[in-house]
Write a structure and sequence with these properties.
The chain is mainly α. The chain is about 70% helix and about 0% strand.
């Protein structure tokens, strides 16, 4: 039957760890940091973990520099009264581990994103991937929708507007 005294959090953590989630030391380059956060998010999505669980579990995947960074960041966010959601974690993460030049370059790619030769699934994937580097747009659903529609090919655009 196993140990009946395990807390729900322990059980959750054991189950999560059984999927061998990727860890991060914080010394990796931007591309590696980006794929780490994408991989961990894919795992959270497929396990259907709620926001608060993600934040509690992610700390166990951070080591060395990354762990020290998150402990102090979490402290200062809580001190300011910020509710730490998964999005808050990701925003802080991007600011710390992606240099400004990297974020600017991605932001510029987002600003000029057009569907072009991409099919709709590819366009959606690229849009979502780059959106995190455009916080001024990511904050508003309306701005996101406008930007998304503006990037669509004219034939698709007509379909969307006709709907």
């Amino acid at each position: 039957m196993g140990d009946m005294t395990a807390t729900p959090m322990e059980t959750l953590l054991k189950r999560f760890q059984s999927f061998k989630p990727p860890t991060l030391k914080g010394t990796e380059n931007s591309v590696e940091c980006e794929s780490w956060v994408e991989d961990i998010e894919d795992l959270f999505e497929s396990l259907d973990y709620a926001d608060d669980r993600r934040v509690k579990l992610v700390i166990h995947q951070l080591h060395e520099v990354a762990k020290v960074w998150w402990i102090s960041t979490q402290r200062s966010l809580e001190h300011r009264g910020t509710v730490i959601t998964w999005d808050v974690f990701k925003t802080a993460f991007y600011q710390r581990f992606f240099p400004i030049s990297y974020r600017k370059e991605k932001g510029a790619k987002f600003a000029s994103l057009q569907q072009g030769q991409l099919n709709i699934e590819q366009y959606v994937a690229k849009f979502t991937n780059l959106l995190k580097f455009a916080p001024h747009i990511a904050d508003s659903d309306e701005a996101q929708a406008d930007h998304f529609i503006n990037g669509l090919n004219p034939d698709v655009f007509t379909l969307v507007n006709a709907g």
